[in-house]
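Repro:
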Amino acid sequence: MGKEKKLTEEIRFIKKSDSEYPAILNCYERMPKGLYLKGRFPDPDRKTVAMIGARGCSNYGRTQALHFSKMLAEAGVQIISGMAYGVDSYALKGALEAGGKAFAVLGCGVDICYPKENYYLYEEILKKGGGIISEYETGSPPLSWHFPIRNRIISALADLVLVVEARKKSGSLITADYALEQGKSVFAVPGRVGDACSTGCNALIAQGAGIAWSPEVVLDELYAGSYVCKDENEEAVNWRIMKLSPEERKVYQCLQATEQSVDGICNVCGMESRLVAVCLTSLCMEGLAVCRQPGYYCRMEEWE
């Protein structure tokens, strides 16, 4: 009973005529005349990414959702999703773990945590300064037809929509369609050919969606190519180093501020060239190393 009471506290109804109503929603048709809110709306002065994907995501989808959301959140980007099972939940979880702001647009009343297993996420979103949003009045159950409709709000509140995993027929693709109608950028994380959960993402890429092969690609799009990695704090850099594999960390420790050849790095590390090359590629994608000329690498000095 205590939890149920807590879920009904501090609920506000923000009318379209109220100054607190998100101004961005007024730019699009078919937006609600009011929104129920717990917490706050996304800050309009900060970038927001909608991260969406398959409920029954694979381990790859789960890993990528956490990775992208953490990196984006560490760069100051707000994360919004529908708080469904799978990718939505991991996207919010990653943002919160990185100390970022997270927001959820529900397909039920804001006084109902759906799915109920996400109660911890629901509370953490509010505790850490985010918001729970819905166009449905309190007490409204999570009816199936509510979810595709609420997706237009998710995309409208975001500057960019990132699809992490999606099947051929997916609610995530409905959100992507809304985003395109609204003139938003749509990016998709590429997946392995033949994986059911990646069919939708690969199809989006084939149709012209941006290829989200790293968080930096998304950040470049958000900041029109002006995003600079050196603005990231030391804790964020340390976190990136900590999550490296043992081999990647070993190669990273061998890198210097001045350029070294791959053969030179192999000699210092005592590792095979093929494995070193794989590690160097990964380090470059993480923004920890840079290749300024073919075959030569150095540590990314801006991070230090």
